[in-house]
Amino acid sequence: MIAAWNWAKRYLPRWPKENPFANTEKQSSEEHPRYIPPVEDFWTVFDLATGQDKIMLLAYLHTAARRTELFELTWDDVDFAGHRIRLWTRKRKGGREFDWVTMTNELEAALKQWRHLTPFPQSERVFLCADQNPFCREAYGKPFRYRQHWLPRLCEKAGVPRFGIHAIRHLSASILDDQGYPIATIQTLLRHKNANTTSRYLHKLRGMRTALDQAFTRQEPPSGSDDVVGLASPAVPTGALPTAKRPKLRLIKSS
To answer: Which are the contacts of 221, defined by CB distance < 8 A and separation ≥ 6?
Structure first.
C-alpha cells in the first residue's frame, strides 16, 4: 500500500502528498524456512520429466534463474558462440535489466538439441506451452505465465516431497556453498548486486539442507540413455552429443 501510494504521488496529478500508510506499524509474522530438495530428489524428478520439461529443469539448476526469467527467454538471449545466456530481471530499482551468465557444457548441448526438436521452430521464445490436455489448449504455443502445478505434479509422480521453481534456485546456491565455493562465486551465479544480499541468502540456507553429493554431478547417467537429456531424435544424431555427466558450473563475471 505504501509503494502504491508513492507511485500515485509521482505519476497522478494532484494526488495527496501525505501517505497515510507510511506510519503503519509492522505486523508480526512467522517466517517459515523454504524447503530445499535434496539433490537426489531433484534428479529423480528430472529423470521422470520429458521433452521441454527436462530442458527447463536443467536450465533452472545450472543458471539459478528465477521463474519468469526462463519464461521470457528468447533464442536471441542464447549466445552459443559465447557460451552464455542473457537473463532479464525486474528485481532491481532500475527497472528491467539483464545479466549474461555462463552456460555449462551440458546445458549448452541440451539447448542446441532443443533448438532442433522444439515444436515451435519459428518462435523467438525458447520455451512455450506445449501441453495439449483440455486445460491447456487455449495456451498452446503461447508463453508461460505461471506453471504453478507443473513441478508439484512431477514431484507427486516421482514420489518425493513437493518443491517449486524458486527452490531450485536455492538448491543451486546451496550446492555451491556446500562445495566450499566463495561467496563472490555464488553471488555471480545468483546475480546479486550486493554481496550482503548473498550472505543473507546463504545464512537462511545453512542448517536446513540435506547433505549433498558432488556439485551438479551424478555418478552414473540413467541406464539406456546415451543423449544429453533423453530427447533422442532421428533429426539429432545422439552420437555427436557429449555424455550425460553433470559438470560443475563454469562461472564468468556478469558483463
So the answer is: 243, 244, 245
DSSP 148: T
Beta strands in 77-225 (DSSP E): 78-79, 84-92, 95-102
Domains of the chain: 34-240 (1.10.443.10)
- Which candidate, 242, 232, 216, places its Cα nearest to that of 108? 242
128-184 confidence digits (pLDDT tens): 998 877 767 788 889 998 888 899 999 999 999 999 999 999 899 888 888 888 888
Between CA 209 and CA 2 the distance in angstroms is 35
The pTM of the full predicted model, rounded to 2 decimals, is 0.70
Dihedral pair phi/psi, residue 112, rounded to 5°:
-65, -40
The closest of 46, 51, 114 to 78, measured between CA atoms, is 114
pLDDT in tens, 40-95: 999 999 999 999 999 999 999 999 999 999 999 999 999 999 999 999 987 666 67
One-character DSSP codes across 110-141: HHHHHHHH-S-TT-SBS------STTTGGGTT
Query: Which strands, in side-by-side order, build the sheet including 84-92?
Result: 78-79, 84-92, 95-102
